[in-house]
Amino acid sequence: FKYFDSKRAQSGKAVQVDSINLSWTLYAIISPILQSISVNQISINDATLGYSTVSDEVSDYYQMDKFDFNAYNFVIDSLADKQKRFLYSESFDVKAKGIQAAITSKNHVFSIYSMNLDARNGELNIKDIQVWPWSTKTELDYMKGSIDSIAIRGMVYDKGLRAREFNISTPVMEYVKMPSRLRKRVTQEVIKTDTIPSPSGGMSTID
Fold this sequence. Notes:
Layout: E1 2-3, H1 6-10, E2 18-19, H2 26-30, E3 37-55, E4 58-76, H3 80-83, E5 91-103, E6 108-118, E7 123-133, E8 142-153, E9 156-157, E10 161-162, E11 165-176, E12 195-197, E13 203-205
């Protein structure tokens, strides 16, 4: 927020501009009306999410077929900003299935069967990860392969992320590096369909 004195500017005198940084919080917004807000549980169930970006005529797509979210003991009061609880909640969990992304700007497609994050117990489980190139006829390096599962136990977030256990099951990944003589500015094709190539070479649909 900046304050500007127009009268002093018109008088021809030196003008001093005072800058004040205002950090708005949820409590600052509700405090003129309410002293606090408390909700035992906030939930989003069976949601379908889709997102796309367009840059330099290249489209990237992201999708979740099923998305569930729960936040527990949501509280906004005078202590909320000092406690700095994530999402103003004591804990939360996220469950998602059918995660797909066609990142054509990087020549990659990936899919995840399921992802479960339980912040209360400090656990993250990701199953059936697949990565493959959008096209092999390209000047861009690319990766292809799969990972059966990723599991993290004992996660603690306190000015950084710490974990007691980290496991990756059956990783099979290949990195394909294109010859350096092909290193030129790549012109990506504009995607005009709602389909993405599958690992087997077929096509799958992004809604």
